[in-house]
Design goal:
Two copies of one chain form a homodimer.
Chain A lengths: L1 E7 L10 H9 L2 E5 H10 L4 E5 L4 H13 L4 E5 L9 H7 L8 E6 L4 H9 E2 L5 E5 L7 H13 L3 E5 L9 H9 L8 E6 L7 E6 H5 L7 E5 L5 E3 L2 E3 L7
Parallel strand pairs in A: 1-4, 1-5, 2-3, 2-4, 6-13, 7-8
Antiparallel strand pairs in A: 8-11, 9-10, 9-11, 12-13
Chain lengths: 244, 244
């Protein structure tokens, strides 16, 4: 029986790879995924065969991985960050039942998602309850996103935003801040990290009012504090409890 | 200048450790933390000096780490899962300003938190927007937890519960399910994983109605699906979008 490993490789570079992810890449006969991530994995295993496809061809990629495994080869489907958080594990597992279980086994290999790696760069923004929300409305109606932002603000969660912008969605972060400002103070401690763990990494702490005016790109992960989040020694820190 | 590394080692065992975490443990002169986690880290580096303290002595442990670093030694503060998610990064960064910056530098090293490692075991429950909520009311008033559960349910988030129970809080998961059932269907797909990545790992998929009757322990991480979460081929899968 052959395997499809869905492998989260972390934010980029071999430093964030778990031992389990490394082993999965090693055991694969072919590395498959979005071009940029496959190239990152290939840095570790330069002799591996690869099958890279452009963005937004996810289902095609999953089908290819399952077909290749059913023909007797191990495949690693390479994901940035974690395998499951907005990753390829979902579409792969949705397609998997079309292939006989005796031929193909799927193993999901978790990785350090941007919420965790970005948080570490800023300090400890995720020290208490938090939400992760993607602002991409490619596959999700904006009304659903808006409802979630509203609920996250009312619940006083720390909020981590993925896909805060794109070419077609230049004003989404501003719209998001306007929604959050209905329930949250403009002084709420926020932060962003760009190109986590890669060349050109940058980060900034700022208030929610300032975030509303900020220009970020699609390689940025945004953090919005809860009412207890503070700036301490230049870092964004959410205390673990309400005692202090 | 000496360093305090706050290191997330993942759910247990060397398999989930990132290369960055391994390097941090290697560079440390002493491994510090809750006994169980220090022992896990020590399996990798059996010759390292250790300083282990029981549960709930977190502040003492942080102070010890900072003092030891200010005396010229590198310390790794070992956390299960991630360093920041309900981890030691927050209390450490809260105390750090008491120590001169020229003497002590804090580096937060992220790790695979139970939401990610547990999700991988169940399939892909975190394929779309999600919340992480701790049911521990040691440091958080129950009213805050209840409010967050209500908001998470109303926002139709996937919900991942940490600390679902303890000796003093035997009925908290049941109370939680009752709150969620006000907004969510009793047929909502749920799952739990116990002892993730350790000996005696177990998991189960079940409905929210069944989860209400379930006995779980404090080593269990619980997942409650959104309205789109499905059981596919025996796995818990939340599609990445609303197109399917």
């Amino acid at each position: 029986m052959s395997k499809v490993f869905v492998v989260g490789i972390g934010p980029g570079g071999p430093d964030f790879l778990t031992a389990q992810a490394r082993t999965a890449l090693e055991r694969a006969d072919v590395l498959c995924g979005y071009t940029v991530y496959v190239e990152l994995a290939q840095e570790l295993f330069p002799d591996k065969e690869t099958y890279a496809t452009p963005m937004r061809r996810e289902l095609e990629r999953c089908r290819w991985a399952l077909e290749t495994a059913s023909q007797g080869r191990n495949v690693a489907l390479v994901c940035s960050g974690d395998a499951g958080v907005y990753g390829m594990a979902s579409p792969l597992l949705e397609l998997a039942p079309e292939f006989p279980e005796v031929e193909v086994e799927v193993e999901v290999v978790p990785g350090v998602t941007a919420a965790l790696s970005g948080a570490a760069r800023l300090g400890a923004p995720l020290g208490h309850d938090f939400c992760v929300i993607s602002l991409s409305d490619l596959l999700t109606p904006w009304e659903v996103i808006e409802k979630r932002l509203t609920c996250a603000a009312e619940g006083d969660f720390v909020i981590c935003l993925y896909n805060p912008t794109s070419k077609k969605r230049v004003d989404y972060l501003r719209r998001t801040c306007d929604i959050l400002l209905r329930a949250k103070s403009p002084e709420t401690v926020c932060g962003w990290v760009r190109n986590i763990g890669r060349e050109g990494e940058r980060s900034r702490l700022l208030t929610l009012a300032q975030l509303r005016e900020e220009q970020v790109d699609m390689f940025t992960t945004v953090f919005i504090g809860s009412s207890t989040t503070q700036t301490i020694g230049g870092r964004m820190v959410t205390p673990r409890g309400y005692e202090t």
